[in-house]
Amino acid sequence: MKIGKIPQDILNKCVFNLISNKREEVLLEPSIGEDCSAIKLKDDEVFVISTDPITGADKDMGYLGVYINTNDIASSGAEPIGVMVTILLPPSSKEEQLYNIMEQIDKACSELNIQIMGGHTEVTDAVVKPILSLTAIGKVKKDKLISTSGAKVGQDIIITKWAGLEGTSIIAKDNYDELSQKLSNELLQEAISLDKYLSVIKESIIAKNYEVTSMHDITEGGVLGAIWEVALCSNMGAQVDLDKIPIKNETIAICNYYNIDPYKLISSGCMLMTTHRGNELVKELKKNNIEAAVIGEITENKDKIINVKGNKVELVEPGTDELYKI
Predict the structure, then answer these.
(1) What is the per-residue DSSP string for 92-130?
(2) Which of 88, 183, 258, 266 is buried deepest, with most CB atoms within 10 A?
């Protein structure tokens, strides 16, 4: 299989079709684009759980891991509480590497006011580089739970921040010496600093006041992949204007250098939302210093269309993230 996300047909055959046992406590079940599970607690409250590994970044993997997983929790409308951490290290690893990863995790947890709740660390020859996997846990009132699959016909599609945000920062950090031969130090430092925008918790809190019915944080596959997942998961279509998607000059420069598509580049820190009150939500987000834009709408047919300079292009299932091409 190719590096990146598993294609839909293989997921259905090898994963989803093998999940047979079900319990009444589980409110959100696994499906394409559904990043969280939810477990009923009291009559009015549920746990929300999400898990993801870090495989595409060499530097700051602990910091990125916390934010990526808590973003999944925030996209369900929940408040993150803590994380469970699994770290697998190859025999060639040094104590310093484990220390640095945990230090990064602790820093991110402190910033988000969440707790490291437990986990597992191991040195194994089954891996050739450090592998980090985290499980984030949150809570939300049952009637406030939001799913990726909640998009409705006629709703605006809103994006927060800038396409390729996380990927731009990762590439600039991991390939600084190479990029510095062609791009300015000022541009590269701006690109690296984009990691300060990785959390989507603030916008998720704001969005809940504007009748948002679907939220999805934008990870592997980038903006175009996230749009495809929201539409598929909701059994809807989508019409989106590429020119309306915000993007940083730093991202354009770095993606041009490597000849990769910024709209298919991992974008943690960005959120897709759907609501009938898109313009109001964008206005409120900007009042809170969060870049946002209405980029399209949800449609009744199943077509997923991107308008590119007046031309309509069909949006297809996302393949390997552009980050893995470098």
Answers:
(1) T--HHHHHHHHHHHHHHHHHHT-EEEEEEEEE-TT-SS-
(2) 266
